[in-house]
C-alpha cells in the first residue's frame, strides 16, 4: 500500500501514470525521521521522500545550495510540506556494490562539489566545537586542539559545501554516472569531513585509503598536505555532529543507535590526538 501522504499530482505527471492505483511502490527506507519510496509506472520512476527532525530540511538545502550551485544531486521535481519528489538517478548504491572503481568515482563527485565556489557563513565555526561537546556531555578529554585546528582552517581555506553524510548508501549510480543523494545535512565549512567518511567506509571494506585520497587531490586540484589536515579536522567534526545527533535525536528515532556512542567517542579522541 502506498503512503497516504503521497503528493499524487507531481508523481503522476513525472511518471505519466494514469492514476495512483497504477503506480507500483518500493519502500527504500523507513526510520523515525525519514521515509523514502521509489514509485514506478512502466519504465518511469521517481523517488519520494518525507523527512522530520534533522531530515526535514532537504527542501531548504536544495533551494539554498543544490539548485543554485548545480551540485551533483537528483533533480528536484516538486517540494511541499516536507515531502520531496526527486528524479530517480539509479538503483545501485556504493553500499550495495562497494567496488574500488566506485570509491574512486565517488572521490570525483566530491571533488566536483568542493570545486564549486560558494558564498555564506560557516555552519561549523570554531566555537561550535565547545558548544557541541557541552551538549553531548560525555567527552572527558580536551577538545581544545580541535578548536584551534578548525580556527586555522577558517583562516587558511575558503568555505565549501559539506554534504554532511557522504557515505556509500548515499552514492548512487545508473551504470554510467554517480550522484550524491540525501542532502538535508548540507552546510558550509573549510574541512573535509565528506572525504573522511568516504575513506573511513572504504577502509572498513578492505580498500586502500591512498588511491581514493590521491584521486580526490588530482580531481579537485588540491594541496595534498592541506587535504590531510582538512580530513583529520573534518573527521573530528563529523564525530562531534554524529554524537550530537545520537544523543539528541537518534536514541528516539533509530533503534540501537545508543551503541554508536562509545565507538564514536573513541574515534573522536583518536582524531583529536592526531592534531598538533
What does this protein structure show overall?
The chain is an alpha+beta fold and 276 residues long. It has 2 domains: 8-88, Sandwich (Immunoglobulin-like), CATH 2.60.40.1180; 93-274, Alpha-Beta Complex (Aminoglycoside 3'-phosphotransferase, Chain: A, domain 2), CATH 3.90.1200. Helix content is 46%, strand content 17%. The chain has 9 helices and 10 strands. The chain has helices spanning 8-15, 58-69, 100-115, 127-136, 144-156, 193-204, 209-220, 224-253, 261-274; strands at residues 24-30, 34-41, 44-51, 76-80, 83-87, 92-93, 160-162, 171-173, 178-180, 187-189. The chain has a 5-stranded antiparallel β-sheet with strand order 1-2-3-5-4, sandwiched between helices. Strands 6-8-9 form a 3-stranded antiparallel β-sheet, covered by helices on one side. A hairpin with a 4-residue loop joins strand 8 (171-173) and strand 9 (178-180). Helix 3 runs antiparallel to helix 6 (193-204), helix 3 packs parallel to helix 7 and helix 6 packs antiparallel against helix 7 (209-220). The longest helix has 30 residues, at 224-253. The radius of gyration is 19 Å and the shape is globular. The relative contact order is 0.13. The model has no long low-confidence stretch (mean pLDDT 94).
Notable features of this structure?
single chain; 276 residues; alpha+beta; Immunoglobulin-like; Aminoglycoside 3'-phosphotransferase, Chain: A, domain 2; five-stranded antiparallel sheet; 46% helix; globular
